[in-house]
Write a structure and sequence with these properties.
The protein is α/β, with parallel strands linked by helices. Strand 10 and strand 11 form a beta hairpin. It has helices spanning 16-24, 30-34, 38-45, 49-62, 74-80, 93-101, 107-111, 115-122, 126-140, 148-155, 166-171, 192-202, 227-236, 244-249, 259-267, 269-278, 293-298, 305-325, 353-359, and strands at residues 160-161, 176-177, 180-186, 215-220, 251-255, 283-289, 329-334, 336-338, 348-350, 362-368, 373-380, 387-394, 397-399. It has a nine-stranded mixed beta sheet. A two-stranded antiparallel sheet has the order 1-2. Strands 8-9 form a two-stranded antiparallel sheet. It has 19 helices and 13 strands. The chain folds into three domains: 8-79, DNA polymerase, domain 1; 88-140, Orthogonal Bundle (DNA polymerase, domain 1), CATH 1.10.150; 155-399, Rossmann fold, CATH 3.40.50.300.
Length: 401
């Protein structure tokens, strides 16, 4: 790579001030800029991420990194660079704005959408929407068959968020898993909200301390989020120079008033996730506490059961798509009911039926025990054995017994 300085003002949209900032940051020529990421330019040159993408794309084309001279065809070159919604054939600025306002911020989000939802959001015909989805799936490599080797390589990107309680982490195979939804269900006082409070703290820790160095989204449906509890848990970490305000600033809380509002918050979370990614504190944890509370109160009686389950199914898939797209952890709490047909054993049963049971990747049952202990039981997992572990809830957070 050449280190010769070029006239950066040739780049569309780059003036003298921006060009000077680029040179000061070490971006001396088109080739160096072409290998940068939008986040790097965003931080060092103080320009918007969308502008940074356009600058990088122009430099890649100019320096020959996205042309046939690199050894690939035009389609492969398109896949190698960061695609914008405007790159979709037939999509202009107006349609792109409508898509972004509806929460479709990336090529991947369009690739995983339904044609009906996309047609409604962009005010286009369903046949046009199908073509857009097909094109996005081809560019994002979504929707086709993959070999087991490719799936294994994708699994290597999965992250684990530790609880910092050795017995619980061992039960969970290292911690809560990204690109998956973990359901916590149990009676009141069993520790569900305590665990999710602990996780919004732990997720902000660097990876060497068991965290993921990211931000959290907390959808609160039962008014359970308490910043005072976060303060206690941060102090409980006993980390020197730990700033409570910094931890609170990276937790983005929304109070859901209705089930439709709850669903809308998750649908609109993509925009916030993009902002967090640009700021260098990416979304790594999505919490809904609780998942079924509002649905349970609004859809009472057997006559509304089908509609409730359909909406709940769609809501959980939206959560999963959000987690999958940003390699984040989905953590949802669930209420329980007592099954009167059970005469022997534990009659406790989670709300939501098979819809929640099938969609959640991991199911965890929490219950109280003697002496203030709590028991975590792994009920369902695609790759881990069933088992139990105990923990305590103390002022400084969740701890080993």
């Amino acid at each position: 790579m050449t280190t010769e300085t070029q006239n950066l003002e040739q780049i569309p949209g780059v003036g003298p001030n921006t060009a000077e900032k680029l040179v000061q940051a070490g971006y001396l020529n088109f080739e160096i800029i072409a290998t940068a990421t939008p986040a790097e330019l965003y931080e060092s040159v103080e320009i918007g991420e969308a502008t940074a993408r356009k600058v990088i794309n122009w430099c890649r084309q100019t320096s020959g990194l996205s042309t046939e001279s690199e050894g690939g065809d035009a389609d492969e070159a398109m896949k190698q660079r960061n695609l914008e919604i405007e790159d979709i054939p037939g999509v202009g600025p107006t349609t792109a704005d409508k898509l972004r306002e509806s929460g479709f911020l990336t090529i991947e989000s369009i690739a995983t959408a339904t044609s009906a939802n996309l047609a409604e959001a962009a005010e286009i015909g369903e046949s046009t929407a199908k073509k857009m989805i097909k094109w996005c799936r081809e560019q994002a490599d979504i929707g086709g068959f993959r070999t087991g080797t490719e799936v294994f390589e994708q699994r290597l990107k999965v992250k684990k968020l530790t609880t910092l309680v050795p017995d619980l982490d061992e039960l969970l195979g290292g911690g809560f898993e990204s690109q998956a939804i973990t359901e916590l269900y149990g009676e009141f006082g069993s520790g569900k909200s305590q665990i999710v409070h602990q996780m919004v703290v732990n997720v902000q820790l660097p990876e060497e301390l068991g965290g993921l160095g990211g931000s959290a989204i907390y959808v609160d449906t039962e008014n359970t989020f308490r910043p005072e509890r976060i303060e206690q848990m941060v102090r409980g970490l006993e980390i020197e120079d730990a700033n409570v305000e910094d931890f609170l600033a990276n937790i983005h809380v929304a109070r859901a008033q209705t089930s439709d509002h709850q669903m809308l918050l998750i649908e609109n979370a993509h925009e916030l996730a993009q902002e967090l990614k640009a700021k260098g504190k990416p979304l790594k944890l999505v919490i809904v506490d609780s998942l079924t509370g509002l649905f349970r109160s609004e859809y009472a009686g057997r006559g509304t059961l089908a509609e409730r389950q359909q909406k709940l199914n769609r809501h959980m898939h939206d959560i999963f798509k959000l987690c999958d797209e940003y390699n984040a952890i989905g953590l949802v709490t669930n209420q329980v009911m007592s099954n009167p047909a059970v005469f022997f054993g534990d009659p406790t049963k989670p709300i939501g039926g098979n819809i929640v049971g099938h969609t959640a990747t991991f199911r965890i049952y929490l219950r109280k025990s003697k002496g203030g202990k709590r028991i975590m039981r792994l009920v369902d997992s695609p790759n881990l054995p069933e088992g139990e572990a105990t923990f305590m809830v103390e002022e400084g957070g969740i701890r080993s017994c």
